Amino acid sequence: MNDFDNYTNTKDILKRFIKERFLSSASYELSDSDLLFEKDVIDSLDMLELINFIESSFGVVIDSSDVTTDSFSSIEKIANLIRNKLNRSG
User: Fold this and answer.
1) Are 43 and 37 in contact (CB under 8 A)?
2) Which tens digit of pLDDT belongs to each residue from 15-65?
3) Residue 73: band (very low, low, confident or very high) from pLDDT cuts 50, 70, 90
4) Is 5 helix (H, G, I), strand (E, B) or coil?
5) CA distances to 32, 50, 64 from 89, in Å
6) Does position 2 have pLDDT exceeding 70, yes or no?
7) What are the chain's domains?
C-alpha cells in the first residue's frame, strides 16, 4: 500500500469513527474538509475521546503541543497530523 492509500485509509477510519460516535444523524454527509468544531460535530470533550482513539488505533502519541483547534479542525488536518507522526516514528 502506498502513502496515498494509507492517507486515504486514515481519513476513512477517522470519518467512520467520528460519524459513529459524534453524529446523531446518519444522513449527515461529513467531508474531509468540514470544520468539525465550527459545525458542532465535536467539542473539547469529544476531542479527548478522539485523541484516545487515534493513539490506540494508529499507535502514535498525541502530545499536548499537537492539540490545537487548527490541527484537529477537520478530518484532513487530523489525518495529516497522524501521517506526520507516523513518518517521524518510522
Assistant:
1) yes
2) 999 999 998 776 678 999 999 999 999 998 999 999 999 999 999 999 999
3) very high
4) helix
5) 25, 21, 17
6) no
7) 3-89 (1.10.1200.10)
Supply the DSSP string of 24-79, one letter for each residue: S-TT----TT--TTTTTS--HHHHHHHHHHHHHHH-----GGG--TTTTSSHHHHH
A 10 A CB-CB count for 85 gives: 19
Residue with cell 501521517: 83
Whether pLDDT at 1 is above 60: no
In the numeric block, which cell numbers belong to residue 46?
469529544
The DSSP call for residue 2 is -
The most distant pair of C-alpha atoms in the chain lies apart, rounded to whole Å, by 38
